[in-house]
Design brief:
The complex is a heterodimer of chains A (380) and B (294). Chain A has 380 residues and is an alpha/beta fold. Chain B has 294 residues and is an alpha/beta fold. A five-stranded antiparallel β-sheet of chain B has the order 13-14-20-16-17, with helices on one face. In chain B, strands 2-7-6-3 form a four-stranded parallel β-sheet. The chains are: A alpha/beta (380), B alpha/beta (294).
């Protein structure tokens, strides 16, 4: 058998002094034959470093439309600043080479008002092709095909880019897109199906991954940023971690993101903050909770970017008089009542776990301590 | 694990509810065992199999509520049953009865004649495999309704059990409701009760695990040389890539899937005392035959 199984006793992690793993953290069994690469993708070459590029012109806030030219400029300047390269092409060559097969993990859950922007995805594809990656070796991916169909990236991308999903829809009937030998096993609530399998695309085909999350609130995790997008967007059967008021996302988000080969292959984080969602996330069915941070954050450290995201969402909620993402009071909780949650930003349907970002740092995925995160601010 | 005495797997007889269901049309559809009115008398009525919304019923998981009768067949293997099923359910009911070797009559909607006929042809063409049923635990049947509901929840979780009149030394776990270990008050919540039994058994020690769906119920039969696994999909949607783990070392697995035919098993491995494989497609019903490694 060519596989290696190991159990991570998560309570034994001690990357961060004074960090106490909560006693209700469930046992997680990680099964993967893949070893970490010499140059780990997360946190990668720039731990604790974030380039934040802001432009008032990147989105017309009256229509929500993005300005393609400004977005391209933001990305180009950000990539040069992150890498120190003299040209944009050189900046991209620091991460990619022509032989790579590159996955672009988008986020389509916030359709129609907050998804990975067409303009950003298109420019990423353009830059990869500029490096020499064949167009047919570029995969834009999500878990659910019906969400990809709604967002419909194809008209915005060169012909030949692969647009793929693991499942037709969120119905728990398509497992063939997942790797049966690479999974996290845990029993959270007594569910029978105790495995969450990594997408085959990720484990068996891609050599590099670019993560493009949005700046969004999330009812179970507090925020859904780099960690949540790459973790819950690359594995099956993950909704089982949060239900009936309780969320195990605190430990599972980081545990999934840390699984090989996902961790090693995810080499670039592009946080799309052209638009954002401050409540009701990860969905954005109305514009009521949409806001416009009008910025992009670049880096290789998902924890550092998500640490900044926690403040962005928290501040926006505070500006609207909404309860904190850290609120754990029973009086705010209306279990599973999504209608009440959508109507009232002071309602939680689950006790959120924004601590998942700090927890991920204990797995070595990046820097959580705000004092150790260096943010380079640019304005376009 | 242990095994149960054999049950002959027989095709159910069929009774159609409308004029279209005349003997000729039934025979044309491939139905060989046709019920007369007298065949339906005195049989225990069964619910239509499938999944159901149960508004207001709390569940500790998101798993849908499955309406299945396998536990009834295990509890009373010699009883006679009748299904009166709406359109769309006849093939599933036939497969369910066949998998457990139940003596069942099917009262069907004529719209199901074709799909039922195809299912019956499939079932009739399966190679015989009269193997004893395999179980992980025993449940002492006190005849109560609550014991039946516990059996129902055990079956839905693919916790394979044998019904016994008294605790049996053949099993590590004997569930006798009303004892200090299994209080009747606990059994009043059969879902939690089944979960307790599962955790006593431990997932690693279970003879069967199913990954990739919570609407597939299985029946495992085996002897020292081979095994046959019946898979019944109650969800109404085809499932791709269902992952199965069976304790013991097996090789040369092959699936026969209703409406599809023979399929090779994928990604088969033997490790840690168990065999794992993926079934590429599961329609309403499939059997998987496995040969033991000697």
């Amino acid at each position: 058998m060519h596989r290696r199984s190991f159990v991570r006793l998560l309570t034994a992690t001690s990357f961060l002094r004074d960090f106490q793993v909560r006693p209700d953290t469930p046992a997680l069994r990680v099964v993967s034959k893949y070893r970490a690469s010499a140059n780990s993708g997360m946190p990668g070459p720039y731990p604790g470093r974030v380039v934040s590029i802001r432009s008032d012109r990147c989105v017309d806030t009256s229509t929500g439309a993005a300005n393609d030219e400004v977005v391209r400029d933001m990305l180009a300047r950000g990539m040069r600043a992150l890498t120190g390269a003299g040209t944009t092409a050189d900046a991209w060559r620091r991460f990619f080479e022509p032989s790579d097969i590159v996955g672009i993990k988008v986020n389509c859950g916030g359709y129609p008002h907050c998804v990975s922007a067409y303009e950003i995805v298109a420019d990423v594809v353009r830059q990869l092709m500029g490096v020499g990656v064949p167009v047919s070796h570029i995969y834009v991916y999500e878990r659910f095909q019906n969400q990809m169909d709604e967002v419909n990236y194809a008209p915005h991308l060169p012909e030949g880019v692969q647009i793929v999903a693991a499942e037709r829809a969120n119905r728990n009937v398509d497992n063939s897109g997942y790797d049966p030998a690479t999974y996290l096993e845990a029993d959270f609530f007594g569910e029978e199906d105790t495995r969450s399998n990594m997408m085959r695309l990720v484990s068996r085909l891609l050599t590099k991954i670019i993560n493009i999350p949005n700046m969004k609130d999330h009812g179970a995790t507090g925020v859904t940023g780099c960690l949540k997008n790459i973790a819950y967007g690359s594995f099956s059967n993950v909704a089982r971690t949060h239900q009936r008021g309780k969320s195990h996302t605190y430990s599972v988000v980081g545990a999934l993101a840390a699984m090989e080969p996902l961790r090693s292959r995810t080499v670039l984080q592009i946080m799309d903050g052209l638009r954002g969602v401050w409540h009701g996330g990860p969905f954005a069915r109305t514009t009521r909770y949409v806001f416009y941070p009008r910025r992009i954050m670049l880096g290789t450290d998902p924890v550092a970017i998500d640490r900044l995201l926690l403040d962005i969402i928290e501040n926006e909620r505070r500006a609207h008089g909404a309860i904190s993402i850290w609120d754990r009071s029973p009086s705010s909780l209306k279990m599973d009542d999504t209608r009440a949650r959508d109507a009232d930003p002071n309602v939680n349907i689950i006790i959120r776990e924004p601590g998942h970002v700090e927890y991920a740092s204990t797995l070595g995925l990046g820097v959580h301590d705000r004092a150790r995160i260096h943010v380079q601010e640019l304005t376009v | 694990m242990t095994s149960l005495p054999l049950l002959a797997l027989v095709l159910p007889c069929v009774y159609s509810t409308a004029d279209a269901g005349t003997r000729a049309s039934l025979e044309t559809a491939g139905v060989e065992r046709i019920c007369a009115d007298s065949d339906l008398a005195g049989r225990e009525a069964l619910p239509a199999p499938g999944t159901a919304a149960r508004a207001g019923v709390a569940s500790p998981t998101r798993a849908p509520w499955i309406v299945a009768s396998g536990w009834r067949f295990i509890r009373h293997p010699d009883a006679k049953y009748v299904y009166d099923v709406p359109a769309g359910k006849a093939a599933l009911a036939a497969a369910e009865a066949f998998a457990y070797g139940a003596d069942a009559a099917l009262k069907i909607d004529p719209a199901d004649l074709r799909s039922l006929g195809e299912m019956l042809k499939f079932l009739g063409a399966l190679p015989p495999a009269d193997l004893p049923a395999v179980s992980d635990l025993a449940i002492v049947d006190d005849g109560s309704e609550i014991a039946g509901e516990v059996m129902n929840l055990l079956a839905r979780r693919n916790l394979l059990f044998e019904v016994v009149p008294a605790p049996s030394p053949r099993f590590r776990i004997n569930v006798r409701i009303g004892t200090p270990e299994y209080p009747r008050e606990e059994a009043a919540d059969p879902s939690a009760f089944a979960l307790k039994i599962r955790r006593q058994l431990t997932d690693d020690q279970r003879v069967l695990r199913v990954y990739g769906s919570e609407v597939v119920i299985c029946r495992l039969t085996a002897d020292a040389g081979r095994a046959r696994l019946h898979l019944i999909n109650y969800g109404g949607r085809e499932i791709e890539g269902l992952r199965i783990r069976v304790r013991g070392a097996y090789r040369n697995g092959e699936a026969r899937v209703a409406g599809v035919g023979r399929l090779a098993l994928e990604d088969q491995i033997v490790a840690s005392g168990a065999t794992e494989f993926s079934l590429p497609r599961l329609t309403t019903y499939a059997v998987i035959d496995l040969v033991a490694v000697r």
